[in-house]
């Protein structure tokens, strides 16, 4: 059946009908008072979502662009930085740092395992000359479904005193409690096609007062991603360059939806969806790729044995028009990933798991009792 696509991937994520209708409106001028009023409310609601009173800036980029902006605005060539790397996106920030001539020290862990805060503590404590200028952490490592212990790592960064904490929160912001001010996070980057529940095209960067001090002496090249330009424009409820007007109008809608639901309810919903999905996968006797203690609220990675992940994904798409994500790099065809981020409900998880049970049966996988996945998910939902 056409037009029944169900996105169960880490991004883009499903979009509420109200936001789709906002996208369908005629564009308005981005230098008009009407747009300025919309942008002013969007900025205030972004601060609410970030739990901060500091600047939250909206850029015309994807999540990668937001993180890159968060790196290049506050550092200078040759600066020493620590980068946590336990998946595809941690590796990406290593590459970005190297591309800009930074002295990158990679804190590497096997994919599927969480970063060890003790390693960061050791390196930061040993830096008595305060040469480490930043620590970059991917909070929710989308490629593996691992949630890193940002709060603990950040405590060690704060004890260092000099280094900035730069956070890739692309698939954690809006899904997990991330109190920017309470934790003292310096730079937090995210993207619109995740927890924000709108299509790709916008990136967001929150910036602390400490980071703005570093900005004054940072010497890496920048122009379009110069956050100083965005700060000045945002203060006047405008933008430095032409924005994707309708995306911001749609964001205006989804942030209102999120405020109506409330932060605690949003975080609880994502936790419930995570727990139900993981219980269902265990009920189907399929191995989970990440441990319960470090499982991301945004994505669940599954490592089936004796059956190719890509065959599961292909049949799910063909038979039920449900899109699952595959593995990346060396995990290609080794894992599949079920997204439960953003505009996702209990019903979506039940539909996905039921369809997965049929798919597994048709592919000849018999190591489960029909209905066991659904039963496990229902048990979680009934107790939540």
UniProtKB/TrEMBL annotation:
What is the protein's given name?
A: Tritium exchange subunit
Concerning PROSITE patterns, the annotation shows: AA_TRANSFER_CLASS_5
The protein's job, in short, is: Soluble hydrogenase catalyzes both production and consumption of hydrogen from suitable artificial electron donors or acceptors. This subunit catalyzes the tritium-exchange activity.
Q: Where is the Aminotransferase class V domain?
A: 28-329
Q: Which family does it belong to?
A: Belongs to the class-V pyridoxal-phosphate-dependent aminotransferase family.
Q: Does the keyword Ubl conjugation apply?
A: no
| Species of provenance | Nostoc punctiforme (strain ATCC 29133 / PCC 73102)
User: A GO molecular function for this record?
Assistant: alanine-glyoxylate transaminase activity
GO terms for biological process?
glycine biosynthetic process, by transamination of glyoxylate
How is the subunit organization of this protein annotated in UniProt?
A: Heterodimer of a large and a small subunit.
Q: Which cofactor does it need?
A: pyridoxal 5'-phosphate
N6-(pyridoxal phosphate)lysine: modified positions: 194
Record-linked InterPro entries: Aminotrans_V_dom, Aminotrans_V_PyrdxlP_BS, PyrdxlP-dep_Trfase, PyrdxlP-dep_Trfase_major, PyrdxlP-dep_Trfase_small, SP_NH2Trfase/AEP_transaminase
What is any Pfam family matched here? Answer: Aminotran_5
Q: Which residues does the record give as substrate binding sites?
A: 337
Give the UniProt keywords, A-Z.
Answer: Aminotransferase, Pyridoxal phosphate, Transferase
């Amino acid at each position: 059946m056409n037009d029944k696509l169900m996105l169960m991937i880490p991004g883009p994520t499903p979009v509420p009908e109200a936001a789709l209708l906002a996208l369908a409106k005629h564009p308005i001028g981005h230098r008009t008072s009407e747009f300025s009023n919309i942008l002013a409310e969007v900025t205030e609601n972004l601060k609410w979502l970030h739990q901060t009173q500091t600047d939250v800036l909206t850029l015309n980029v994807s999540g990668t662009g937001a993180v890159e902006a968060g790196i290049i605005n506050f550092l200078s060539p040759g600066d020493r930085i620590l980068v946590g790397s336990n998946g595809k996106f941690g590796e990406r920030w290593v590459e970005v740092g190297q591309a800009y001539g930074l002295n990158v020290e990679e804190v590497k862990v096997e994919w599927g395992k969480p970063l060890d805060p003790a390693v960061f503590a050791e390196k930061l404590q040993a830096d008595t000359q305060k040469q480490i200028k930043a620590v970059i952490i991917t909070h929710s490592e989308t490629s593996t479904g691992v949630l890193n212990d940002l709060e603990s790592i950040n405590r060690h960064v704060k004890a260092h005193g000099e280094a900035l904490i730069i956070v890739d929160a692309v698939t954690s912001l809006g899904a997990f409690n991330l109190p920017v001010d309470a934790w003292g996070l310096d730079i937090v980057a995210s993207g619109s096609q995740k927890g924000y529940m709108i299509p790709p095209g916008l990136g967001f960067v929150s910036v602390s007062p400490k980071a703005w001090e570093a900005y004054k002496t940072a010497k890496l090249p920048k122009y379009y991603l110069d956050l100083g330009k965005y700060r000045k424009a945002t203060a006047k409820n405008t933008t430095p360059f032409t924005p994707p007007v309708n995306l911001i109008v749609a964001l205006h809608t989804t942030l209102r939806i999120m405020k109506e639901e409330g932060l605690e309810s949003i975080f609880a919903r994502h936790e419930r969806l995570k727990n139900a999905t993981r219980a269902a996968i265990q009920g189907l006797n399929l191995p989970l790729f990440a441990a319960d203690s470090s499982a991301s609220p945004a994505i669940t990675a599954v490592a089936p044995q004796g059956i190719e992940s890509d065959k599961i994904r292909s049949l799910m798409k063909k038979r039920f028009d449900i899109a699952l994500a595959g593995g990346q790099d060396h995990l290609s065809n080794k894992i599949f990933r079920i997204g439960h981020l953003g505009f996702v409900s209990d019903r979506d998880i039940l539909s996905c798991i039921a369809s997965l049970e049929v798919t597994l049966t048709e592919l000849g996988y018999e190591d489960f009792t029909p209905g066991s996945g659904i039963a496990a998910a229902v048990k979680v939902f009934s107790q939540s």
